[in-house]
Amino acid sequence: MNQELEPPDHAVGRSRGGLSTKIHHAVDGKGRPLAVLVGPGQGGDTPMCLPLLNAIRVPRLGAGRPRTRPDALLADKAYSSRAIRSELRRRGIVAVIPEPRDQQGHRKRRGSRGGRPVAYDPALYKQRNVVERAFCLLKQWRGLATRYDKHAVTYRGAVVLAAIMTWLRA
User: Does domain 3-120+132-169 have CATH number 3.30.2000?
Assistant: First the structure.
């Protein structure tokens, strides 16, 4: 694994409730984790999107490089940014991300310079519940839900162990 993707030992963040950590993970269509990252609790979701996509490595059955590019990215409105959409377009990944109302208003206010409305497939977006169900599986582990570990590396290890257990169930 790349050194840059390893979470630093001080990745524990401070939020209103105290020390916290966010789990960022990409799952396949069946809810099995493909990549897992741990970030600070006060950090946003958007900055972790591209490192998370870079962490995806699915080995091929035969010879060849591992697959690193999903067919589509189903994400909620928090991931709707120009940078993410342009990077997904550059990589040839279909973005299934709705546009938030405030971004719609900004675009409409700019008139013809605001660009076209964001197109996404609402029927495909309904499959995003797979991600939410994968998070619910992670929260079944009391240690992950309550964040008892002191160090982010130990916490990430527990998250990876939970991901392995999810793959073994499949």
Answer: no
